[in-house]
Amino acid sequence: MNQYCPIEKCNGILISTFDEEGNLINKCCECGYITYSNKEENASNNKSHIWIKNEFSKTKEAIIEQEDKIIVISYLKTIREKRGISQKQMAEIFGFSEQRYGNVERHYNAPSVVLISQFAYILNTCIGDLYKTVKVPKEVHEEMKYLKIQKSELVPFDELKTADNVLNSITDKSSKEYIKAKKEYDKLINSTATFLKQDELVENYYWEKYLEIKKDDDIIKFIQEHQVRI
Known about the structure:
Radius of gyration: 27 Å
Strand content: 15-25%
Number of helices: 11
Order of helices and strands: EEEEHEHHHHHEHEHHEEHHE
CATH topology of the domain at 68-136 and 215-230: 434 Repressor (Amino-terminal Domain)
Number of strands: 10
Strand order of the largest sheet: 1-2-3-4
Largest sheet: 4 strands, antiparallel
Structural class: alpha+beta
Distance between the termini: 36 Å
Helix content: 40-55%
Shape: elongated
Oligomer: single chain
């Protein structure tokens, strides 16, 4: 409901706005008469106004004018493994096939907010620990986009060692068994992986590898300072 100006013979309407100090006020659109809101409401709205003026405006400017990028780093696989839970166990809980759940971790299928919340509950963590949002400068994003990392650097040592042992245990180098084992080994060690996915979702070990390669304290500090806390 509109509030009308209390000044006699003024038919103006009081509009909610902010003064120069960020205080919430009701100002007449005709004569300029001002009243202040109650202290609690004013304090709350004042904080919101300051946040919009400072943090939100800076982020908006960085993304629009400086072309900074926002990426999401996934810790789903890392936390699952730390809990000692297999992909198969996670899949069974949700009635998924192991492949379908694996596709979520590999970012082929984007999980819904509800599903992410359920993952967090099962893994006894919070959503903000499973997926962390980071704003990075345009130049950093471009470097990451074209960075190639050998999968042999990302494959767990035990997995690589097992594949190597299986390969070496086969004496007949022309057998189907050896050819299959060789393909599995080559798949682990030879192929390269583009760092950024199309949907801007990055596994945490890719992210850590990039920072390790970069070794730029200024870049790392910038990224850490701009990490969004959920």
